[in-house]
Design a protein that fits this description.
This protein is mostly loops and 119 residues long. It is 0% helix and 7% strand.
């Protein structure tokens, strides 16, 4: 983090809450600038020196927004997790998405590792 764009001082935060300011820079809650390492066109890092790091500024254009039509989600749930009952309805005026995950119970006492492949 840098207190301002021209500062040579490096500061650190444990907060982790960032936003984008009016000039499209990523800043923390007190306006300090997030520093990132420079990268090539392919995204590979060209220097890991703190002196080479620069303030992250988002581009002016990032493409046209497009609504999502599909979601691929991978989760790992504990077998002893509490089952949360389904809500009957959402509060008026709120747009929500419900996700119901069906997890079949094992038919034998032998459980497979999540990383194993079926035979």
């Amino acid at each position: 983090m840098k207190p301002n764009l021209t500062s040579n001082q490096t500061v650190y935060t444990r907060n982790g809450g960032f936003s984008v300011n009016n000039d499209r820079y990523v800043v923390d809650s007190v306006g300090q600038f997030l520093q990132v390492f420079p990268v090539n066109e392919d995204g590979s890092v060209t220097s890991t020196s703190i002196d080479a790091a620069g303030s992250l500024q988002l581009p002016e254009t990032s493409g046209e927004p497009k609504a999502s039509s599909q979601l691929l989600l991978g989760v790992n749930l504990p077998a002893d997790a509490e089952i949360i009952p389904e809500r009957a309805s959402s509060p008026a005026g709120r747009r929500t998405m419900s996700l119901i995950v069906m997890i079949p119970r094992p038919t034998t006492s032998r459980l497979r590792s999540p990383c194993s492949t079926p035979r």
